[in-house]
Every structure is written in structure tokens, then in C-alpha cells.
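Components:
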Amino acid sequence: GNSVTQMEGPVTLSEEAFLTINCTYTATGYPSLFWYVQYPGEGLQLLLKATKADDKGSNKGFEATYRKETTSFHLEKGSVQVSDSAVYFCALSDRGAGSYQLTFGKGTKLSVIP
Amino acid sequence: DAGVIQSPRHEVTEMGQEVTLRCKPISGHDYLFWYRQTMMRGLELLIYFNNNVPIDDSGMPEDRFSAKMPNASFSTLKIQPSEPRDSAVYFCASSLAGWGQETQYFGPGTRLLVL
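Structure:
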């Protein structure tokens, strides 16, 4: 079956620090990969996505590259801000299964301190 | 364009009462998903619909939960009778079908507290 494993949190960083949140996956087909972000008290929002190997998704200074050989989709940001404090979810959609369900990781809580 | 709309945003009820959560997906989307989020279990998929037809309800926790989608612009999730362990945030999400279009768009959630 499909699964997503992301690093355990919480992660606490100082403002302007470099961020990496690791995400690895297993999939029966050829998935699309996603990062979602959830700010306190809100729903999940799409942060970025990639649909094929070596694609790089980017948004708001965040980046992630679809690495098929290592089955990974690590999230990075060069300089975090206090406003980036949120929970980050890695997810995959296994289109080969024909269902368009998303399989989510457990989420990583990021706290950025001034 | 309006996003996914959920109502109510907050619901407080007493054990044994019926609770109905409502969702309006993004117009033109083919898929609708209901999720539950708790601290203990994280994000769980309860049920999803394709073109108003339930496809997979294996995540529905028990018979007290039911979901309907009478038309393309409206879905309900009903809990009857409600129990304190049903307290959670319930999200609705919708998406298109097709390669590269399967991004799910989430509503703001309904925060349910069962006393």
C-alpha cells in the first residue's frame, strides 16, 4: 500500500534559520507529491506540489524536489520567518490506483522564534 | 472564486444529540472528501465521493456516522447519536480528476465538541 513518513516534530528554529523537513514515501504507482501547511485554527492549504520525477515545487520561499530514486520529497526553506510557524504535511496521490485519494504523513509542527 | 465552504464553523452539543455538518465544494470539482482531525489520531479520511456517488466509506468509524451528497454542490456528514469521543475538527475537501489536477482544496473545518 501507500504510505508517507515525515520527520517527527516539533521543530523549533530561530528566525532566519534554514529549514528542512524530511519526507519519504512508498507508493504502488507513480504518485504526485504535495506539501500542505496548516496554520493554527485553519484548514490545510496547498503549499507546493510536484507531479513527476525531478520536478521542483516552490512557493513562498519553500522548495521540494521529487526524487524518485530515493522516494523522497524533502521540504526546504532558506530563511524561516515567525509567520511560517505552522504544521506541515507531506502527502501523495497515487493516480495509478485511480482514486485520487491523498495519503498524508502525520505532520510536523514548526515553531519559529524571534 | 469561493473556496470550499463548511458550516457551522463551531458546534457544541451534548452526548446523544444529532449533529449535521455541511459542505459546499468548489464548483466544478468531481471529488469530495470528508476528514477528521484529532491530536491522537491525526488526519483521517472518513469517506469520499466521485460525481456525488460514495466511493469508499471504509474510514467511517461506525454506523453512527453517515454522509450524503444529494447534488454536486452540497454534502452532509451526520453523527447520530453523538459521543464525546467524536469531538474533533471535521474537514471537507474537493478536487478535480485528471493527471496533475488532483490537488485537494480544504475548507476551514467544523470544530465539534460533544459534552
